[in-house]
Amino acid sequence: MSDVTPADLHHLIVVGHPDRNSFNHAVAAAYADMVRQCGQSPTIRDLYAIGFDPLLRSTERPESKGFHLSPDVEWELELIRTASVITLVYPIWFGMPPAIITGYIDRVLGAGLTATAIRHNQPHEMLANKYFVLVTTSGSTLPWLAERGQWEGMRESFDSYLETIFSFAEVEHEHLDSIVSPLSPDYAAQCLGRVADRARFACSAVLCRAHEQQKIEKLKHYQERGSL
Fold first, then answer.
1. What is the mean pLDDT of each run of 10 residues along the chain (228 residues)?
2. Do 138 and 92 form a contact (C-beta atoms < 8 A)?
3. In 3-state terms, what secondary structure has residue 195?
């Protein structure tokens, strides 16, 4: 049983912004750069660039008679299966995530998940114990969002609720507010520094968790051998 190394850990970074020159793309790049510096491997999925279809088909609902997953969803699921960390990077528009992000959650993260499984708190086989990171931006300030109840509402629906139904080991959320054009270079650098810190923390957390899990598996292996 070989030891887990940083190179064994993968981060899937999903970006939901239509402008390739947006600050959100700079955020994704900064996150990926820090992952590489930590010796782990990142994969960036630009949902707009790949033409991801956010519309959930009736046959993709597990309750439907002809249930089956579309090929594009199967491809995304392969990336998720090998990821230790799933990071979503997106802006807050009209108090909500972009439709392409909610569509990704509907079609990919929620693929095959039934209402019965959610109601009975059944662990999500594919997502259980993965690390989930949200990096969001808004033109409004965080206090402005909080005053209108939008911040707490988003935290409940995305952070807390998704953590529960998808069985994530942990959910972290880094929000960057007052992201308006033109953006001060000093403030941009400060925000990207926070993103890098968040990525470094995620790398450390999943590496520690992987080592702990390996210790448990080794102990179980030795106990089984001793009982032979």
1. 80 97 97 98 98 94 88 95 96 92 96 87 88 96 88 85 91 95 96 98 92 75 62
2. yes
3. helix
Q: Exposed, middle or buried: residue 109 (CB in 10 Å: 0-12, 13-18, 19+)? A: buried
pTM for the full predicted model = 0.91
> What CA–CA distance (Å, rounded) separates 218 from 45?
35
Q: What is the dihedral of CA 149, 30, 36, 217, to 10 degrees?
A: 0
Fold of 6-226: Rossmann fold (3.40.50)
- Residue type for position 165: I
Residue 98 CB burial class (10 angstroms; 0-12, 13-18, ≥19): buried
Closest CA to 195 of 173, 180, 179: 173
Cα distances (Å, whole numbers) of residue 168 to 2, 5, 62, 213? 25, 22, 21, 15
